[in-house]
Design goal:
Distance between the termini: 36 Å
Structural class: mainly alpha
Mean pLDDT: 80
Largest sheet: none
Strand content: under 5%
Amino acid sequence: MTAEATPSLVGKTDGPASAGPSARGPRARTTAGYPRYVAGKLGGAAVSLLAVLVTSFFLFRLIPGDPVKFMTGGRQVSAEQLAAYRREFGLDLPMWEQFTDYCGKALTGDLGTSYQFRAPVIDKITEALPNTLLLTGTAFVIYTVLGVFLGTRAAWRNGRLGDRLNTGLALTLYSIPSFWLGLLLIVVFAVGIGPIPGLFPTGGMESGDEQGFAYVLDVAHHLVLPVVTLVAVEYGQTLLVTRSALLDEMGSDYLTTARAKGLRDDLVRRRHAVPNALLPTMTLIFINLGRTVAGVILVETVFSWPGLGGLFYQALSVPDLPLVQGLFFVFAAAVIVMNTLADLIYPLLDPRVGR
């Protein structure tokens, strides 16, 4: 029996993965039911987006503070001027009319006008989005690859010293508040402490006086500390989910059969155990991918990164209601869309889902 023929035999020991005649019926039923499954998921996503739209309007009106007084810059203004500001931004309308106006415009892509920037909210979001994607996207790629790799290694060496060290470090870093770790890294590696000199900028995205390739290096230099902060805090979740899923797979009959056929242990792990164990991790990856749009508000604030997270904090302190509402809706919509996309892809990876 050759090793090349073994994978097909291994697949036959696992019912859902079988290619035999008995599997054609369930797979055909899964394919036939997939449009209904998709319709249900898309309908649920639409309801969730509508709920977010309603929540974003009423939630932030509970924040104390008068945005009209902020717009005056602390100057002494007459009641007539305050009333004019309220009319300009529609704050003098009844609440129900403000709500219907907000929903009607939001459905057409108009998220309103920012109080403090006097610019369309969608323009401010579009301006800050690339900066957030650069920061959180870079961190996402690193902590996903690191978490999956270390998670598979830890599970395959369950109970050994490396597994205990990996799991312990992941749990410790995952429990540390990101803003605290960011401040600690700034103190140690940006300001400098003892024999350690300040090696990195304390914040911002660029120095402002570089061009060409020097500008790219300058941005990369500013990226180091915030990316390290995000990776240190976030990789542990991916590691733990991957490790747990792989441990569940390791006792499966098809892996025992693969070993009995003479496949090397490394080959059994890479070709059979890891692909099946990655199904739960796939959902987590898509959810984290949605969160890259939202960014990490605390990390961007600590490092003065000019992204959506820092913009949200700035708008929340006013409060700039249209900007806060628009950012909240974009953050939630990104997670909902990515979660729905994961739900739609999952049955294609595992036919047992969505029957």
